[in-house]
Target: THSD4 protein
Amino acid sequence: MCPESSRNIREVQCASYNNKPFMGRFYEWEPFAEVKGSQKCELNCRAIGYRFYVRQAETVIDGTPCDPNGTAICVAGQCKSIGCDDYLGSDKVIDKCGICGGDNTACKVVSGVFKHTLTNLGYHKIVEIPEGATKINITEMSKSNNYLALRSRSGRSIINGNWAIDRPGRYEGGGTMFTYRRPNEISSTAGESFLADGPTNEVLDVYMIHQQPNPGIHYEYIIPGDNVISPQLLAHRRPGEPLNGQLGMPESTSHEDEDLHRETDILTGQSAGTFPVIQPGRFPSHQPENQVPAMQPPRQNREHNWKQVGKTECTTTCGKGSQYPIFHCVNRITHEEVPESYCDSSTKPIPEEEACNLFPCPAFWDIGEWSECSKTCGLGMQHRQILCRQIYANRTLTVQQYRCQHLEKPDTTSTCQLKICSEWQIRTEWTSCSVPCGVGQRTRDVKCVSNLGDIVDDEECNMKLRPNDIENCDMGPCAKSWFLTEWSDRCSAECGDGIRTRSVVCMTNHVSSLPLEGCGNNRPLETTPCNNGPCAGKVEWFAGGWTQCSTECGSGTQQREVICVRKTEGNFDVLNSYECSYLEKPPSQQSCYLKPCGSKWFHTEWSTCSKSCEGGFRVREVRCLSDDMAASTQCDPQLKPEEKEQCNTQDCVPEIDENCKDKYYNCNVVVQARLCVYTYYKTACCASCTRVANRQSGFLGRR
Model:
């Protein structure tokens, strides 16, 4: 075996080429292990700091490991396995019972799952681990707020005892070393576990500190089977003694008094099988017949005795250690030390353990491992557990944090960044709307781009932050009728000529049953002139003050008077506008907006009256629209304009035709004789014939 501090044999072989030029240059070489198959026994070396490797030799030195973590070695360029019997090419492996080349029949696997529903908080016994158990595995089936605990049958707490939660780590107990694991990664779902190779030298009890519903505890360990030496005896085997239970014993040795113990499943009460447990010292010592008994040592005289000359060094510098008295053989009179053979060994005092350095050790910060980064890319956070701990009686206890106040407390959180996140990029502007009017859709190109500028899968970016690549677009109603508001009450000019305004909107008609004309190009006027009287005191090529806004809300206009004047001594003379035509004329009108109007009533023009006389009716469509011309329900119902009204209520009067007269005085006789059907009489007695015709039809003056 090579010393632990020695360099890896492949590193040594690659480094031997550092002083040899390669293609005219010198490089420093390191092993390149990313090869497969027969290449594992070639000497492949990579130039440090460069991205290429070279096969420096067809074969490595015999004995070079094939893999960094494997047991196979290279011999004559071939990868050869090594069996557990240390023979090259052997295929023997250690079975689960720990026997090289065994067939797994020399031991018994005991396993089960503790799934009991618990109600009381606190410690609950799960399983008993017998003496001699190996390959111990106690694992919580999923993460929970419960804790596993371990205690010896003598009552000594090994892990998580007395309501003190220990940090994950290695703890000695029952003659073996237990590895206590408690995954602290945020994303991990694995539970706690105890693992130990064994064998145990006493009975151990496993407990669960119950705080929430039990997720299930899986337990498994291996115990010796029939005709197998117990693990305790294996540890004390003398050189030359046979293994695997092949012990040479006299035929007369009796096995009738062997103790048989039945392993019973503590959860179900069912027998898990019977096996013999062979206790240390059960095998009789066999002395060959031709061996001469050893001669008894001569009796020592009383001139020497045992004397305590000191104590061993304390096992710890603080926190309660142990030490033992040291006894030497001395001359009774001179107290000089002499060889121990001068004293009676049977009278030598047995050293008893004594406590020492009882004062507690200084408290310290116990720093846990960092959790996984909260973000897979970009800036995230990671956490770790920081506990104030103190060692006493070979145990590490959690204490109040004020005991560590003399030390700077390490950070419990830290920023982390595994890699730079990819980001969303908008590659194109919005397309035009898919429809000329009404509601359609428009699109744009959105891509996930890495920090190197490459387009990658969308999953590489945060889907919650993805910009929309499609949205609705409203091109306005597909118009059919003009909708307009009432004229504004206020003239844009306080004096002189001004205007009043109204809103005009072309919208789809879908209410009225009467045929209304389409919008077309005949847009109703949005302004109408108004005059509040002449203005006094006109001034020079000069802009007067703005009038009030033509509307109290929404969009309107403001007017101001702009005239061309000439200043004289103390006066201004008004000139014709052309006198100032070479100057830029200030605007006389501008738009204004005082406040949103909110919803308002809009209506169409009145339809044609249904009658020309004696009372007809006409209709118009009325809608409530918001500032953005969308349908609304916020208008005042009391201010809603009428949708239907009477019209042409005047009486129907026959039309008088000056050319239609009676030419004879007795035309009434023509009417009585019903001669008006003839053209001659209809013309000669036009008035009488027309009057009787209207009376008979019952409809006067209908157009």
Remarks:
- Residues 305-356 form one domain.
- The longest helix spans residues 686-697.
- The chain is about 5% helix and 30% strand.
